# Entry
Amino acid sequence: MEEILRIDHLYKRFEDMPVLKDINLTVNKGEVVVLVGPSGCGKSTLLRCINGLEDIQEGRVLLEGEVINPAGKTANKSRLKTGMVFQSYDLFPHKNILDNVILAPMKVQKRNRAEATEEALRMLDRVGLAERRDSYPRQLSGGQKQRVAIVRALMMHPEVLLFDEVTAALDPEMVHEVLNVILDLARQKRTMLIVTHEMAFAKAIADRIIFLDEGSIVEDSAPEKFFEAPETERARRFLSTFRYENVK
Amino acid sequence: MGFEVLFKGKNAIRLIAGLGIAMRISIISVAISIFLGIILGMLMSMKKPIINAIARVYLEIVRIMPQLVLLFIVFFGISKMTGLNLSAEASSIIVFSFWGTAEMADLVRGCLLSIPAIQYESSKALGMSRLQTYVYVIIPQIVRRLIPLSINLITRMIKTTSLVMMIGIVEVLKVGQQIIEANRKASPKAAFGIFAVIFLLYFLACWPISCLSRYLEKKWES
# Structure
């Protein structure tokens, strides 16, 4: 198996508050890793460190053997190995859907408009939104916007996709359409790191579950094992928050 | 109705020339205000305590002081204090720019801060440089928010130039008064006609700007 992402002894602090403590993680090509844990456990911050959006105090993040350094001159280039999709619909409101998707390919990768448009329409079609190419973000539903945001990230041909609670701000009926897109990506053997609170989805898509608590990796196991027989008390407690006692 | 005085001598042309002076003062002041206001607004959005403290005092002075008082301070006060002989027109441009820069800076600051951080972050995540992020993502959004607001400021500045007659500039309103005075006996109703025409002139100066703003808002909405 080919290793694609490696995190060595990563420490991250905000001011004096430790957020991530000694994170060690390797991810292989084609692997789908789901990060779960209570809010504030550092899972989103970990994704942001991988994307180089956060500076780190100790340790290093390697993508295909190359160190990600948020302050470095090549930061923008090395960042392109990862594609990040955020929780809030972060499309550019002044541009239509097609322009949202092809802006970075044209400006950053210097691809020509015709070629970028062709690929964009193919990908938009795959998520069922090709006919909305001329719409503006505000005319789309949350789920549609999030699907466009995924396409926009894919257009840069990243090696690793990072999903940061992409369905957390969506209405329940829209969660499904977005998660289906991500399942489709898993079928294409994309390497993905996914932060989510959708446990059924995590179970369905993950090759590995990473359970984070208070800034540390507490468990790293196969989904069947994690959900059926978690090793630690903390993971059991976390999983129990998704179950409800029957009171009838 | 008093409109006949308009056609006496060069009265109509004098009125329009008066409007020209008012427009010249406004256009120069607006240009200076936009330029300096954008720079100051960007500085203010950086949230540096010293810059913000100075800017706040400046903004408060502009808000509290009536423009007329500012005009008197600059035109009479400064020339008395420093012996500098500022022309009335230069004084009014200074005052209007002083006022416009403050308001423009506040608008720019507000617009800059209203752009959510995620817009910067998602541009960064797509590999865009700082410059590319500003040029393709941030500035277009700011301009769209800023134009309707700044057009409101521009029309207010144009209207307020009527104050400059108080420091001796013969702009459209002063010309109007002179015409009314001169024709007091011959056409006692001139006041109505002349002020109606002045109303129309101000309207013609400001209305196209408002139309442009509405047009741009519509265009960007779709």
